[in-house]
Amino acid sequence: MQRPKRTDPVELSPRRALRLYARAARLRCPHCGGGPLLESWFRLRPRCPLRTERGEADFFLGSMMFNLILAEGALALAIVVWLVAVWPAVPWAFPERGAVLLMAAAPFVFFPFSKTIWLASDELIRPVSAAELAPSPASEPAGTSPAARRPSAHARR
Ligand SMILES: [Zn+2]
Known about the structure:
Layout: H1 14-25, E1 38-40, E2 43-44, H2 61-86, H3 93-109, H4 111-125, H5 146-149
């Protein structure tokens, strides 16, 4: 039985992953480190400074998973730390009311980070190819741009 070919081990190295996620945490392009990537808190620029572009209509559905994990995980951790700090005299009114409000607000706070972390994860598994570093779509016939051929980097949303 033949083993499947692996990708370049350098591409999946922990050091490269750390670099990609560090760029994502700073809201920079995970691929080139350029930025700023945000047009507004809820909208990414269509292309990064290197002009890589990824994202078909549903490309960023995966970022919703990161948004929930980041937002609710960070809030749960903060509540546990707070409970340990004030134990045993816990003012239970805060978790009953305040935590619910924070839980609703947290996904909005983490929204852009979830998108850049999703881009970093995609870049880690599926590095941007030379074909994706293409000239602007205006110089190509319709439907032949790399972005049209392959679902790919920065958001349209
Ligand atoms: Zn870039």
